[in-house]
Design goal:
Length: 498
């Protein structure tokens, strides 16, 4: 094997939620917090009186009536929507007028509209939410009073760790330790760092220069709360410039048994002669009176994303995902050529590949691996003459040295990643099958067990490939066959001149 062939493989998250990537908000599932599971004293569920005030507030604004099919109520998850009568599949259960949406228009019409115009949409909504929450006389008070103070999202685990570091008593260090070695922990901490940087900027640009506009000083923890509300409670297609909170509709909970997201909600006109808009929410399944109305939040989210966004996970295997990150090293003598080939085929200097439990490897993973590892006598494939056909060659084994290298590096990376967890798969499975876990420990154990199964799956795939290295057909053999220089038994044919 050529000694200068290198391959960089990262088994940690490539990025957290970076500013260049849009926030992907969707609806929240609100799980109850027990004392043993929370990092601080768990908030009590809103009282029936608060729900009644919220319902009256909605009624006064024309959003609901006594005939509305669904009504907010206390449910096992915290708050949810209960059917007031039998509801048919695809029946509209809510129509919320735009005048009570919390969006950019609401911010612009508020007392901080002039100072929030240049902020990112999610940031202006976050500042608006905090300001209204701090104002006892806010017209949004009935809605704000039913919003949770925290959820089981891993974002709030870390928030509480900050509280612990400044002297508050909590169990955050124990809970975060349960995520040791996971990509979810790295993603959570990365998101936290991003939010801290954004808070410093908004503090300098808006909060301090215009402190007279706010009832009291806004803290970093307030900022985390507002971001968590937006990330967990807005619908998946209403993000970016269209980010919006829909009071009442955002109380609907998630069901893993519902496998469709289509036609659940839409924004439509209020009527033929009206210029107003309505947020219309449908039930994807039939619901009996007194049962909870549920939807599917997002079929494509991994368990790690569900845990970070909403504070729950599923047992569905396809929800377990692990991200492999490959990168072309800038020190690679063929960096420019490899980057050109990668970009020509829709990839870049660094590429992320999501591995799903029980699924085959992504189709572009092996070609990209071979490209990154390409060197030595195989480097001729990087010449310009092969530029239009090289990706086709990389879809098949290039050489034994190249294939052996990618197998070794991937397996070493898997072993290294597995060594960073403080428990084994067997120990996690014993916990899962044992006594009832607290909600947050259930998330931690489920996440790390899923990641370990995926790492073992990846290792098994490349272990099997290693055992087949002598049986694989490589570029040179394929080329000789194309030229008619290899016989049926694989022997090289030498043509003698007559």
């Amino acid at each position: 094997m050529a000694t200068h062939m290198t391959l960089s493989l990262l088994l940690t998250p490539p990025t957290f939620l970076s500013p260049s990537k849009p926030v992907k908000p969707s609806i929240t599932k609100k799980k109850p917090l027990s004392i043993s599971a929370s990092l601080q004293s768990p908030p009590q569920p809103p009282r029936e009186a608060a729900l009644e005030q919220f319902w009256q507030w909605l009624s006064d604004r024309g959003a609901v009536s006594a005939k509305s099919p669904a009504r907010p109520a206390l449910v096992p998850q915290g708050l949810g929507l209960l059917a007031q009568r039998n509801i048919s599949r695809n029946e509209v259960i809510l129509e919320i007028p735009k005048k009570i949406w919390i969006n950019q228009d609401a911010v612009a019409a508020s007392g901080i509209g002039n100072v929030c115009g240049g902020l990112k949409p999610w940031m202006s909504l976050a500042i608006f939410l905090i300001r209204e929450k701090l104002n006892p006389e806010s017209t949004w008070r009935p809605y704000l009073d039913v919003l949770p103070q925290t959820t089981d999202s891993t974002l709030y685990w870390w928030v509480a760790l900050v509280r612990f570091l400044v002297g508050f008593q909590c169990r955050s260090e124990e809970e975060l330790a349960e995520l040791q070695g996971t990509q979810l922990l790295s993603t959570t901490l990365g998101l936290k760092q991003y939010l801290q940087r954004e808070f410093v900027k908004v503090e300098e640009e808006v909060l301090v220069p215009h402190k007279q506009l706010f009832p009291s000083p806004i803290t970093l923890e307030d900022f985390y709360w507002a971001y968590g509300i937006l990330r967990s409670r807005t619908f998946s297609r209403l993000r970016g410039e269209n980010l919006v909170l829909i009071p009442l509709a955002d109380l609907i909970n998630h069901s893993p048994d519902i496998t469709t997201e289509d036609n659940v909600y839409e924004i439509k006109g209020a009527g033929l002669f009206s210029r107003d808009q309505l947020f219309s929410l449908r039930s994807p399944i039939s619901v009996k009176a007194g049962d909870q109305v549920l939807i599917q939040y997002d079929l494509n989210k991994s368990n790690a994303e569900l845990a970070l966004d909403y504070g729950f996970i599923e047992t569905t295997p396809k929800r377990n995902m692990y991200t492999l990150t490959l990168q072309i090293s800038e020190s690679d003598p063929f960096f420019g050529d490899k980057l050109d080939i990668a970009e020509t085929n829709g990839l870049s200097e660094a590429a992320e590949f999501d591995i799903v439990l029980g699924n085959p490897l992504p189709p572009t993973l092996l070609p990209y691996l071979r490209l990154v590892a390409l060197g030595g006598t195989d480097a001729f494939l990087l010449e310009s003459i092969f530029r239009n056909s090289v990706w086709g060659h990389l879809e098949l084994p290039v050489s034994r040295a190249n294939e052996e290298l990618i197998c070794r590096v991937v397996r070493d990376a898997c072993k290294s990643a597995l060594s960073r967890y403080h428990t084994t798969i067997e120990e996690d499975e014993k916990l899962i099958g044992g006594e009832q876990l607290t909600p947050r420990l259930e998330i931690a154990v489920g996440i790390r067990a899923g990641e370990k199964r995926l790492l073992q799956q990846i290792d098994d795939i490349f272990k099997q490939r290693e055992s087949e290295l002598d049986e694989l057909e490589y570029y040179q053999e394929r080329r000789l066959k194309d030229l008619g220089l290899v016989g049926e038994q694989g022997e090289i044919i030498f043509w003698e001149a007559k």
